[in-house]
Amino acid sequence: MAKKDIFQGSMVALVTPFKNGKIDEPALKKLLDFQLAKKTDVIIPCGTTGESATMTHEEHRYMMSFVKDYVGNRAPVICGAGSNNTGEALGLVQYAKTIKADGVLVVTPYYNKPTQEGLYRHYSFLASRVDIPIILYNVPGRTGISLTPETVARLAKIPNIVAIKEASGSLAQVDRILQLCDINVISGDDGLTFPMMAIGAKGVISVTANVAPELNRKMVHAALRGDIVTARSTHRRLLDLASVLFIESNPIPVKTALAMMGMIRPEFRLPLCEMKKENQTKLRKVLKDLGVLKK
Fold first, then answer.
1. 162: DSSP letter
2. What is the pTM of this model?
């Protein structure tokens, strides 16, 4: 199987529901059942949207195991396994391999601001020590550093580095990556998924799929089969949702939306906190207009 065929489609960056400071298992099962029923292509726990930065190591591993065990073979599970400490990231990647996760999503090291050579060595170190499919994750707005297309091209030569979640906001960067190497580019920015797919991306690791998985899948699969008219019209239906879900720091709005839908409690871990009331009003209107909530 070619690298570009391994991971594609509508993939959800799953939130982590909390109750009284602990992972809320019944709510988590409800979220997973919802995604599976709507035929989301891939489930991704413990990413940025899953508040991995505030999980203990034990919670991170527990969340990985819980999701993989519950989902079983009903959908691929890719575990968030990034850190700004290469040794710590290695431990998470090794654990994902142990539980037979289908792959790992590894964010660029945040705060350290490594050079491009440092980024190359970080990923090549992980890839050389654990035989598991790795998705690079470039999100400079959250990490302070960006993988250049040239570095991605170097990393794409490593057999188990199979894709990149690209959230730089730059279509030019996406196009350059696609020109330089044979690697699946996956949107990491919901508002840009359709234009990214129009130039060759293969899907999205999505925040909006938490709330509207069916519509998100419809858009992505239409784009994959070349039905641009359907993909574009669905993109336009989702655009207000994609915008309002980032009106405050992710995952504050998406967890608030899921709470409005009765799926989870609106509980966050500091330094994240509840959404401003005026923004909650805007969010509720978008959800009603989209038909997610009753008017």
1. E
2. 0.94
Rounded to an integer, what distance in angstroms lies between the CA atom of residue 10 and that of residue 208? Answer: 10
Which residue intervals of the chain are DSSP H helices?
25-37, 57-71, 86-98, 116-129, 140-143, 149-155, 171-180, 193-198, 213-224, 228-244, 252-260, 277-290
CB atoms under 10 Å from CB of 210, counted, come to 26
Asked whether the bond before 251 is cis by omega within 30 degrees of 0, the reply is yes
Catalytic member of 95, 120, 137, 202: 137
Question: Comparing C-alpha atoms, which of 130, 185, 131, 132 is closest to residue 156?
Answer: 185
Matching residue, tokens 């959250």? 142
Kindly state the percentage of the chain with pLDDT values over 90: 93
Locus of tokens 């409690």: 265
> Which domains are assigned to the chain?
3-225 (3.20.20.70)
Amino acid at position 40, single letter: T
Q: What counts of helices (H) and strands (E) characterise the chain?
A: 12, 10
Has 137 been annotated as catalytic?
yes
* pLDDT of residue 282 exceeding 90: yes
**Candidate list 68, 120, 165, 202, residue with the active-site label:** 165
The Cβ of residue 87 has, within 10 Å, a number of other Cβ atoms equal to: 8
Q: 3-state class of 161 per DSSP?
A: strand
